[in-house]
Amino acid sequence: MMEIIISNWWIILLLIGLFVIVLKYAKGNKKDYKDLLDQGAIIIDVRTESEYKSGHIKNSINVPLKDLTYRINEFDKKDNIVTVCAVGIRAESAKKFFESRGYNVANGGRWTNLKDLS
After folding, report:
1. What span, in angstroms and rounded, lies between the C-alpha atoms of 76 and 50?
2. Measured between alpha carbons, how far is 40 from 56 in angstroms, rounded to an integer?
3. Packing angle of the helix pair 89-100, 9-27 (nearest 10 deg)
């Protein structure tokens, strides 16, 4: 048993790293996002349409991650944007996409973390 653990140490480290990343993106900082929302930030939910329909933040806009390329022009670069999804990983991808095009955006992580703030 010990030989299996020792020979697969890199897999264990990879799993620990992935767990830490998921926790980071899922948690978010409610205080910072509350400030952004109070200043009129737009919440963009990048989950699929069916995920969004199962529950979402009031007044959020559903733009599935796969459609973001086609819909980015719907948003003004002057706006503050907060991206959300189920866990935070897709929201981080959307954040990077927006940032690469000059938008001011934050990853809000899980949509459920922010639903009470809006």
Report:
1. 26
2. 18
3. 70
Q: By the 8 A CB rule, do 104 and 24 touch?
A: no
- State the pairing for strand pair 104-110/42-45: unpaired
Q: Is 86 helix (H, G, I), strand (E, B) or coil?
A: coil
Number of domains in the chain: 1
Q: Could you give the CA distance from residue 77 to residue 59 in angstroms, rounded to a whole number?
A: 19
What is each CA distance from 87 to 3, 11, 69, 112, in whole angstroms?
34, 22, 21, 9
Tell me the Cα Rg of the chain. Answer: 17
Given a cut of 60, is residue 11 above it in pLDDT? Answer: yes
Q: Which domain holds residue 77?
A: 2-114
pLDDT tens digits for range 47-83 = 999 999 999 998 899 999 999 999 999 999 999 999 9
Instruction: Give me the CATH number covering residue 57.
Output: 3.40.250.10
